[in-house]
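RECORD TYPE: inverse folding
INPUT: structure tokens
STRUCTURE:
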């Protein structure tokens, strides 16, 4: 792992970088170059998903990088239609082939929908066979997370959820910590919603440290022990997002950022029946 990146130890002893690189919404035709640039910038954790349609491009970039496999931490995710014990195993194999890898560092159930209990049983078996170093979930609210934990052998290592200054998930993080689940942020910049990149408070804190708003947000998450996977297609921004280990926010600055929490998603709610129906009807090849 890059020297400047901090490692988080998961509940099974596996270590992952607290700062990685995400490729959500990066088109397949662009993803290979983007991941190549990210690896060159120093990222060693790459997060993708079957539903992103860019696993093959990510795999090509990894193969071409020449970076030893044990220095990389690769995550992908299983989509809703592929849940179920046998289907999940086939979908895992497909993802592994598309990525061109022999094993995954982290495999996640992408949505808390469909027959994810059967999928979890399959993932436990794949983990036992050494094909996945750690298994986890994404977008699980506390009730479903606790239910999954109580009725299975392996506690999810990670729960990747929307987490940013406007939806901070402090209570969810507290519960996860009590249960041994690592919180991971998707959408750390809220995709710029609510004027995040020009927000007066975040800009003021950034100016005090000679850092950008994006760097302040990433530092704020890291100081909360939240794993984060920012995305950018620009090498300069990739490098900037990695450059957050040479300063620290004060307790007062952390407290002031806490006041930005609205307690609600800026995207969508997985408990909304209309959203559940939309997600459940989305098909991934």
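DESIGNED SEQUENCE:
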């Amino acid at each position: 792992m890059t020297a400047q990146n901090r490692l988080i130890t998961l509940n099974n002893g596996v270590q992952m970088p607290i700062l990685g690189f995400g490729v959500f919404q990066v088109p397949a035709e662009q993803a290979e170059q983007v991941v190549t640039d990210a690896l060159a910038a120093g990222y060693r954790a790459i997060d993708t998903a079957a539903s992103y349609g860019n696993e093959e491009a990510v795999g090509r970039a990894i193969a071409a990088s020449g970076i030893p496999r044990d220095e990389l931490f690769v995550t992908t995710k299983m989509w809703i239609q592929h849940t179920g014990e046998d289907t999940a195993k086939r979908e895992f194999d497909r993802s592994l082939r598309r990525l061109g890898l022999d094993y995954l560092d982290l495999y996640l159930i992408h949505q808390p929908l469909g027959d994810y209990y059967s999928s979890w049983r399959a993932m436990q078996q794949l983990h036992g066979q050494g094909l996945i170093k750690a298994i986890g979930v994404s977008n699980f609210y506390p009730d479903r997370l606790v239910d999954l934990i109580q009725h299975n052998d392996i506690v999810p290592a990670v729960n990747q959820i929307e987490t940013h200054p406007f939806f901070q998930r402090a209570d969810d993080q507290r519960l996860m910590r009590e249960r041994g689940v690592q919180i991971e942020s998707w959408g750390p910049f809220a995709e710029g919603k609510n004027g995040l990149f020009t927000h007066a408070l975040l800009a003021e804190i950034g100016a005090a440290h000679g850092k950008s708003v994006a760097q302040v947000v990433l530092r704020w998450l890291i100081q909360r022990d939240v794993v984060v996977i920012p995305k950018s297609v620009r090498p300069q921004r990739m490098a900037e997002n990695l450059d957050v280990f040479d300063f620290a926010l004060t307790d007062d600055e952390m407290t002031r950022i806490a006041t930005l929490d609205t307690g609600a998603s800026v995207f969508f709610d997985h408990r909304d029946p209309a959203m559940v129906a939309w997600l459940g009807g989305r098909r991934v090849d």
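NOTES: Strands lie at 7-9, 15-17, 21-22, 45-47, 73-78, 104-109, 132-138, 158-162, 182-186, 227-228.
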